[in-house]
Task: structure prediction
Amino acid sequence: MEPNGSSPSLTKADENGSAPAIIEHKAFARIGLLGNPSDGYYGRTISLNIENFWASVRLEPSSDLLILSHPTHDLVKSASLSQLVNRLENEGYYGGVRLLLATCKVFTNYCKEQGIHLHNNNFSLSYDTNIPRQTGLSGSSAIVCAAFSCLLDFYKVRDKIAVEIRPQLILNAEKDLGIVAGLQDRVAQVYGGLLYMDFNKECMDKLGHGIYTQLDTSLIPPLHLIYAENPSDSGKVHSPVRQRWLDGDKFIISSMEEVANLVLEGKTTLLEKDYAKLATLMNRNFDLRRQMFGDAALGALNIEMVEVARRVGAASKFTGSGGAVVAFCPDGPSQVDALTDACKKAGFSIVPVKVVPSLLNEIDIRTQSSKVA
Result:
């Protein structure tokens, strides 16, 4: 499938050619370039989707409604009892089935609330993913996003649910499972490409969503993704900062505002292709996060990924809440080589980032209630 998650892969059209028998969608891993975690605090972010990692969901009509488990990710198959227990201890009782179930629930309830008619045909849903676990690359939301797109097309209601609303519905499905997160990941995965997001409180309260502006992906300099294959020390990134913010902690509030303001500078920096300034902003973003959350919460492994890049002069910051780092080498190929060697010596994986283009099709664009550049 081509890297356009909004245009599904369709096969086996019915006799009238009006409805596909099989629908498949991909949603891609997300990198927060600037501004995270301010998206959860009425802030701003700039993010991009990457082709390197993705989740796919396949919908096929069936006589019964079936949510199919994945043999690896849902722990329904193991080589031995000891392997099963070891994976449960390391990864918990998680998997994609619960995400597919929550997506179906939220999608159906929203359509009922909005008076959107859904036909009574049944289907099976299955999924696959190669997004590394616990890397802050939005693996869970990718599954939900891809499933949501399948449901939009199966029920032919893509034109009835505005593209700005979809990220909130995807987040609602995750919240139903106790997943704590902000809108940034879901917005990026719905829209694709390079995206500027403003989550200011006035817009969020009035519109129920932020203001989202797509930028030209050619503005992005060469980036690299650094991640750990087995991130055992991921930290507890979202706590207790949120409670301190809610309690009116002046340091947290001012620091989060500064993180959000980096994005205003970052947008101008990208448009002007001032990549030396971009490197400074990326580093400042991480430094502010570190001051707010503290080293114990961020986790030693996560910090080391950032430091490995900085030791060779590269800019670096978390892609999300920890587990992976986005790095930029302003000095060019020789610095990339030095970074690659340093990552290998430290036991980290490193890959050049491949940016996904915009995922919006003509129907999606027509549903938008606000201008997207």
